[in-house]
Design goal:
CATH class of the largest domain: Alpha Beta
Number of domains: 2
Radius of gyration: 21 Å
Number of helices: 10
Structural class: alpha/beta
CATH topology of the largest domain: D-Amino Acid Oxidase, Chain A, domain 2
Largest sheet: 9 strands, mixed
Helix content: 25-40%
Length: 396
């Protein structure tokens, strides 16, 4: 059995790892480089959320990362505290209902006052009303983590080809035949589309039996600030407790038509909040924002300064570390904020994507669940909230 995985990000590399270690002959095709897009441009956080699906993904993925953490490709994986802060009393009071949703999803939280934080951590200089502490989060270096899966896939027998574009997927009689690349036809029994924001393009360019229905992808975009070495120890990932749940996040991100381009709605951030990840190497990544966007149109370039001002207002001790880089990253999302993994109407053709703002948090588990479903003969994971048929118009 031959499999082609389209995409060399965390979605594609985790699929390749799961397929190859089960002795499926696997080729990964990436048009650029490993982790060139979203998988190399994120905060590297694995965080609890107020939804049971997010918690299920977190638990499963933490276990899978642990399988590779002591391997030949280090990626700074480790457990860390998670501190959810509120700037003022009004937002801290509102946070109580969000905290209760976390608890209902199985996440224990401890309430802390801003005065306690300012007293106990004077170097950081907290200027917040209060916070909730969660002893249940992980940090990693996302570029390294993606390469760790790529390396493990190669060791298990997979081939990874970079700098090669897939132009079409070929099907005949309702069954996948392979893919057309810039270097010719590559036959395959199984094809997995795992190329992020380019997935819709390939669903449209599945030829032989007619194009497949599309999925309602949204090209979200966020900005990150890469900080240099911190001169103090930060025991948690610090996140502002204003980041919405996945469903609300997906709802805010809709871009419905030409009027949105005319109004430059893609230049309006839907979420703007602190998310500071102290990397185990001593440096840190700072975000975060999210706005509806178009894949190749870049706007909203004032967001880094807004994130920096917001951070210094609440964490003034962060004024010292040098800034190494500032960059945007695309976040392929779906309207309910959850990933997609499952079969299409073409036998042997599967999708894995829509990882949005929880890509590192979600990809290893969704890849494992999908491959288990494919090799068992069903093709759709047990988790029905992942399946593409949850969207109207998707027919099997």
């Amino acid at each position: 059995m031959d499999a082609v995985v389209i995409g060399g990000g965390i979605a594609g590399c985790t699929l390749a790892y799961e397929l190859a270690r089960r002795s499926v002959k696997t080729v990964v095709i990436e048009q650029s480089m490993i982790a060139a897009e979203s998988s190399g441009r994120n905060t590297g956080t694995l965080l609890s959320g107020p939804e049971r699906q997010v918690v299920e993904l977190l638990d499963a993925c933490a276990g899978i990362y642990a399988e590779l953490a002591d391997g030949p490709v280090p990626f700074e994986f480790g457990r860390v505290g998670h501190l959810l802060i509120s700037e003022d009393e009004a937002s801290f009071e509102q946070a109580a209902s969000i905290a209760e949703r976390y608890r209902e999803a199985g996440v224990e939280m401890e309430k802390l006052s801003g005065a306690e934080l300012a007293r106990d951590y004077p170097r950081i200089g907290f200027k917040v009303a209060g916070a909730y502490s969660v002893d249940r989060a992980w940090t990693l270096e996302p570029m390294g983590a993606t390469h760790a899966f790529a390396h493990a896939a190669r060791e298990a027998g997979a081939t990874i080809r970079t700098g090669l574009r897939i132009a079409q997927i070929h099907s005949r009689g309702g069954k996948v035949q392979g893919v057309l690349s810039d270097q010719g036809i590559i036959p395959a029994d199984l094809v997995f589309i795992a190329n992020g924001l380019w997935m819709s393009d390939l669903l449209r360019r599945t030829v032989g039996d007619g194009p497949l229905p599309g999925l309602p992808f949204i090209a979200g975009r966020g900005w990150l600030i890469q900080l240099g070495k911190l001169d103090f120890e930060l025991p948690w990932i610090v996140e502002e407790l204003t980041w919405p749940g996945q469903e609300e996040l997906g709802r805010r991100m809709d871009l419905s038509g030409l009027a949105d381009v005319a109004d430059q709605r893609d230049d309006r951030p839907m979420v703007e909040a602190i998310c500071l990840n102290p990397m185990r190497g001593g440096d840190a990544r700072l975000g975060a924002s999210l706005q509806p966007a178009f894949r190749d149109l870049l706007r909203n370039t004032d967001m880094p300064s807004r994130i920096a001002k917001r951070t210094l207002r609440m964490l003034p001790g962060l004024g010292t570390p040098p800034v190494k880089n500032v960059y945007p990253g695309n976040r392929p999302m779906l309207p309910d904020g959850l990933p997609v993994a499952g079969r299409t109407a073409v036998e042997g053709l599967f999708v894995h994507g829509g990882l949005g703002s929880i890509g590192m948090h979600a990809a290893p588990a969704t890849a494992r669940w999908l491959v288990e479903a494919v090799l068992s003969g069903h093709g759709d994971p047990e988790q029905d909230w992942l399946r593409p048929d949850r969207f109207p118009g998707w027919k099997i």
